[in-house]
Protein: GDP-L-fucose synthase
Organism: Nocardioides aestuarii
Amino acid sequence: MTDGFTPQPLDREATTYIAGHRGMVGSAIWRAMEGRGHRSLVGAASSDLDLTDRGAVFDFMAQHKPRYVVLAAAKVGGILANNTYPHDFLSKNLQIQVNVMDAALEQGVERLLFLGSSCIYPKLAEQPIHEDSLLTGHLEPTNDAYAIAKIAGILQVQATRRQHGLPWISAMPTNLYGPGDNFSPTGSHVLPALIRRYDEAQRDELDSVTNWGSGTPRREFLHVDDMADACLHLLEHYDGPQQVNVGTGKDATIAEIAGLVAEATGFQGETHWDTSKPDGTPQKLLDVSKLAEAGWTSRIGLREGLAATVEWYREHGDSLREVG
Ligand SMILES: NC(=O)c1ccc[n+]([C@@H]2O[C@H](COP(=O)([O-])OP(=O)(O)OC[C@H]3O[C@@H](n4cnc5c(N)ncnc54)[C@H](OP(=O)(O)O)[C@@H]3O)[C@@H](O)[C@H]2O)c1
């Protein structure tokens, strides 16, 4: 139904609504678009526009009539939060997505990018994880509610394409890191937690740091500025119903990553591993061949990206948000 649409450079003058523009991903996309000369960016904090309020979302969209929408607003959290509040992760994310996409449909939004997450893929998916493995097996139970909401979002994009012919797309990023991350001790993902721990250890001149698990699981990390660049690339060069994985295509062991964080913080002590704590899945790596076919590969290496993130963390230490 999207016959006849050819991806093309985004119009720098067109109104673009970035939902979630104060979050880690949304703010990176805002910076990237601003840097490329987009003059008509629109965003609203959740305190001004609660995206679970359907009427308010329709009014906002009718007022601004965006030509493009990036849907980077979501209720996001680590394993603990996902496992403790599955109802909120399912219900709030479904409401946000349905409201934004229905209101965008009403306005005939030309290009919409929906952001999901690699947790949509089955727990035991073959590595590296290809887009085709979606809906081929059981999800990781600790974040299944969040994953189901994100899968529903992909389906809504596909259904809108089929029924209404709008060339909307979905992107599924791997683990992200960078400026604006959540560094809370209880709610944060593995990388910000490592940065916080090693930074404190360096400051307090500790002899050693102890991390959970064996350090052997392999994980992939993408800098959020690379992620923003990939999103804009997809909007300008990709059209298709299938979600596109966004990652570096390279993974490293948690021990290697911890070593890079120690280096970036200047921590000189030893690292110990508490093997009585669970390791999680042995490997999580996205197959990024579809993204490469679309003409994009990541540019920011882990060592360089981590050094910049530690610098950012130290500069913003006092004002960091602490979402539990
Ligand atoms: N971070 C990662 O590693 C990662 C990895 C893969 C995928 N992603 C995906 O990328 C997207 C953005 O993630 P993120 O890391 O940028 O999350 P984030 O930093 O927590 O930002 C989420 C944004 O959503 C907004 N939001 C949440 N609930 C809202 C509501 N009811 N009404 C209005 N706005 C609301 C928040 O607005 P306020 O700030 O105004 O409250 C916040 O700015 C998500 O879809 C996530 O699944 C992230």
Q: What stands out?
A: The domain at 16-177+223-248+286-299 is CATH 3.40.50.720 (Rossmann fold). The longest strand covers residues 111-115. Residues 20, 22-26, 45-46, 49-52, 72-76, 96, 115, 117, 173, 175-176, 189 surround NAP (CB under 6 Å).
